[in-house]
Amino acid sequence: MKNFSTKLFVAILFLLVCFTRNSFAQGGGTFYLGYGVATANSIEDVITDIVITTATGGAYKVADSKYSGAIFGGYRAYITKKLEFGGTFVYENSSKDLLSESTKAGSVSTNTYAVLAELKYNYINHENFRLHSGLGAGVAHARSSTQDDVIIEKDKTTDFAYQVDAIGISYGHPFSISLNLGYGYKGIANLVLAYRLGRL
């Protein structure tokens, strides 16, 4: 899986360089920053914690779980009149306490970094209003640190990253704000602030 993720990451970077070089030459493209809640990572983590607690009869469980939400930014450009292509960098932090028989046994903190290549299709593509859907795929790298009273252990994992924005709306030009609903590494709901270079 790690070898596949590395190849996918290289392919994504290659595509981004090819498309962004052309869009910069034409003076177009959009830079954006966003924040998302209820990410795939956090939902899967909560489900895993529930399964472990149930399987151990409550002997092992977690407390004080915290999730930063997805903080992301990126760049995209039009490759047709309605289709945009770009790339996004996503960051999320999570932390929780580990309990054994209601006594704190340690804590876990995880930082997740993801790079996604994304396609965005605009059903309605007016300069000041857009209705769209999006799809993204890439690589995620997570660094976890587990601490108890005696030792600190660190672990790294590389996995497939994704985002499906089922529907979204954008308003404004050249500065715009958009709300997207979907599922993945940017969350079930994410809010985006963007700045577009040039005109549609």
Automatic annotation (TrEMBL):
Coiled-coil regions, chain positions: none
Protein source organism: Olivibacter domesticus
Concerning InterPro entries, the annotation shows: Beta-barrel_OMP, OMP/PagP_B-barrel
What UniProt keywords are attached to this protein's entry?
Signal
Report the superkingdom from the record: Bacteria
Q: Where is the Outer membrane protein beta-barrel domain?
A: 12-186
What is this protein's name? Opacity protein
Q: What is the lineage of its organism?
A: Bacteria, Pseudomonadati, Bacteroidota, Sphingobacteriia, Sphingobacteriales
Q: Signal peptide location in the record?
A: 1-25
